[in-house]
Amino acid sequence: xxxxxxxxxxxxxxxxxxxSTSTEEELExxxxxxxxxxxxxxxxxxxxPLPVVLLxxxxxxxxxxxxxxxxxxxxxxxxxxxxxxxxxxxxxxTEQGHVQAATGLQWLAMTIQN
Length: 114
What we know:
Shape: globular
Helix content: 40-55%
Distance between the termini: 30 Å
Largest sheet: 3 strands, parallel
Structural class: alpha/beta
Strand order of the largest sheet: 1-4-5
């Protein structure tokens, strides 16, 4: 897919967002999309897989899944070959949510630098 290859070209890391209130069907769609992205040759620099951050939005909602539950369903089945990864819950409705998202992005920046 040309759009995917264009998006990955020159990337140093990958960020996915998933709605924490997603249905099982939506989570499966996310898992399949993540699989497609992470299996693309451009998700590697040489033999080194690009690091991945999974931002789990709407974590403030009562019916939301935890970041570890979402990671188990959509990210971990696709992690192979020592790819570094993390999952972070976040919300945009509070200032704390911005800090949460920034934590995931800071992890990515530090992982890329090392």
